[in-house]
Amino acid sequence: MHYGSEYWIFLLQAETSINDVLIQNKGTLVLHLLVVLFVGWLIISIIQFFVDNWSGIVTTFWWVVGLTIVLTVWSHFSGKADEKRKKQEEIDRRRRLDEEQKKFEKEEQEKLRALQIERDRDVQNTACVYEIGRHGNETLALRYGIANTTVENVPYFYTAKGGVQKRNPARDTKKITDSRTVRVKKLRPLKKPNTYLVELPDYRDRRAIIVHVKGEPWIKTFLPLDPVKEDEDKSWYTKFKDLELVLKGNSSMTIKEIAKFHIEKTVN
Q1: 226 — phi, psi (to 5°)?
Q2: Can you give the pLDDT at residue 222?
Q3: Strand 181-189 with 221-223, pairing
């Protein structure tokens, strides 16, 4: 009987190790039980060679087997429950992300709708941001001498040891490019469809004439302004016919260069 405590410790340690392995590995409940029984039989067979108290070992064995079966069944179902819980947590996480994305998209759409409503007003109390392309920037430079440009930061990258691309902000450069937006404040609509007398707050409130179609986010073009009538100056096209012919649609020139030509040719 003096061997009993050692048997218990040995068998319980073996049982604990087996159960840990079973918990960590995903298998069926039947497989778990078969493994427990086989390993228990193997342990008893080994001990049989070293001790004489066989009946005590058998009793201990069945106690340990019973305890192991209980723990195995419990670990199996608790593992299933834990797996189910993790799956549900992942489903909930994805649902939350999806809801947040939909909420963000809805808010962005509402902002765009609100901005478009402001853009479409015939008279505006404050300036609105409009999109503008190359043609719009060209006509603004050609007919008003305004270079609607912006300064962009060009990041500097170099190839480091091992072929890894790294950035050195200290060596970034600046580049002047055509601005993609322009701030405009509509003062009143004109007789010609889709034309408006406007102010340009970013250019000392210069007045100009734009063509803007309601529902669209961009300005199509700038028309020449007669400052006295505050309407389209149709004489511009005759007076500066050569300027229009050479500069309009000339992609080889920058907006800044076109604006410079306007100043040189129109300012006495």
Answers
A1: -90, 110
A2: 97
A3: unpaired
**Pairing label, strands 225-226, 231-232:** antiparallel
Q: Over the range 116-146, which residues count as b (16 or more CB within 10 Å of their CB) and which as e?
A: eeebbeeebeebbebebeeebbbbbbbbbbb
Most confident of 29-43, 77-91, 197-211, 237-251: 197-211
pLDDT of 200 higher than 90: yes
**Degrees to nearest 5, angle at CA 208 with 204 and 214:** 120
- C-alpha distances out from residue 16 to 10, 13, 59, 68, Å: 10, 5, 18, 8
Q: Which amino acid is at 142?
A: L
Q: What are phi and psi of 25, to 5 degrees?
A: -105, 135
CA 60 to chain centre: 62
Report the distance separating Cα 229 and Cα 190, nearest Å: 11
End-to-end Cα, the chain, rounded Å: 121
CB 223 within 8 A of CB 211: yes
The token duo for 147 is 């270079």
Residue count of the chain = 268
CB-count burial class (<10 Å; 0-12, 13-18, 19+) for 203:
middle
48 compared with 149, residue with greater pLDDT: 149
Q: Does residue 3 surpass a pLDDT of 70? A: no
Task: Find, among 67, 71, 58, the residue nearest to 21 by Cα.
Answer: 71
CA dist 29 and 26 (Å) reads: 9
Structure pTM? 0.61
